[in-house]
UniProtKB/TrEMBL annotation:
Pfam families: DUF5610. It comes from the Bacteria. Residues 1-11 have a biased composition (Polar residues). Gene3D superfamilies: 1.10.132.90. This is DUF5610 domain-containing protein. InterPro entries: DUF5610. Residues 1-35 are annotated as: Disordered.
Amino acid sequence: MSINSVNNPPASSSQLSVSVQQSQTSSSASQNVSSTVSARNQLNAQLVANLDVSTNTDGKSLSLLYRTAIDSINQILSDQLNGGAGAQAASDGQTAQGAQQTPNILQQKLSEDNSPEGTSQRILSGALSFFSTYAKQHPELSQEEQAKNFVDIVRGGFEKGYAEAVDILNGLKVFNGNIADEIKKTRDLVNKGFDDFIASMKPQQQTDSNAG
């Protein structure tokens, strides 16, 4: 005699319905919690899929650095300039949208100057373009203090993006030779640009005194 029906009675249709609903609810909650991670993973997957970085003759590895750096700077500025969960949600949405548009973005960037000099200038231009907004939000600070604090913020975003690009290139086992040299040179140029920006915001009298 079979005892399966005794130990494991068949589930009723209502029980099955509840089970399915619970499973769907759990799945939906899990998707919401991991939305940011999924968007980031999707972005990185598309970046790698669209970049043949075995050589750097066409500047594709620097396009990768540009994309990860700008994405990280955008996220940190969104939080600093707008604040709160709303800004984070907007940033998450932008990341997901960016992941979908990555191939087109890369094609556009590959048509530009992807040398260390050109890439660093585009990163600096994008990052520093938000300084006036930050300055207006902090009128209690001197212009030099505003510049120092702002650069601390965007430099942190850049370094995060730089580390992400290096991790990707290391994963592909191509972060060496010319690629590593140009990525590092771009980082040095970006940091020099940040330092020069701070120096340019020092009071004129102090600058003249130092020059004399």
